[in-house]
Amino acid sequence: MNHLEWVKFAEEDFDYYFQLVSDEKVMEQITERAIPFTEAQENFQKILERNRKYDIFGTYKVCEGGKFIGLGHLTLNATNEEEAEIGYMIVPEHWGKGYGKTIGRQLVELAKGTNVTTLKAIIDPNNIASRKILINLGFESEKVCEIDGLPGEILSRAI
């Protein structure tokens, strides 16, 4: 695997974002539904606002050799600045190729350059692949619960 290129999403990147969130396979274990165009546009504007607000925190477009692989995000907790959440989405054609592990590792490294002391990740408890990646990155299961009416598992690790 070559070096992954990371750049924060910008206005012209909406199509890449929409490619992910409108894909039922990608969203199956996130929201259990594809995100419609108008809702995706609203969500993307929030991403752009966060990206402008912070230097390191934000949502990154991840590419390899100019080819879009997916996204990774490091999002600061609005009420506890010592805590941030990591997450990623990968285009299905790139699943099972080690990108999740690489993106996860790079998000942890990114967080180490901040004042954050605790990282969280929220997954569908049935997402065995993401759970395995996070456990291998030092995350531990904190609790399995319902989040916004969907099954969720919160994992955390100190950094």
Topology of helices and strands:
Blueprint: E1 5-8, H1 14-21, H2 24-27, H3 37-53, E2 58-64, E3 67-76, E4 83-90, H4 99-112, E5 118-123, H5 128-136, E6 140-147, E7 150-158
Parallel strand pairs: 4-5
Antiparallel strand pairs: 1-2, 2-3, 3-4, 5-7, 6-7
Describe the structure.
The protein is an alpha+beta fold and 159 residues long. It has a single domain, classed as Aminopeptidase (3-Layer(aba) Sandwich). The chain is 33% helix and 33% strand. It has five helices and seven strands. It has a seven-stranded mixed sheet, sandwiched between helices. A hairpin with a 6-residue loop joins strand 3 and strand 4. Helix 1 crosses helix 3. It is globular, with a radius of gyration of 15 Å. GO terms for molecular function: acyltransferase activity, transferring groups other than amino-acyl groups.
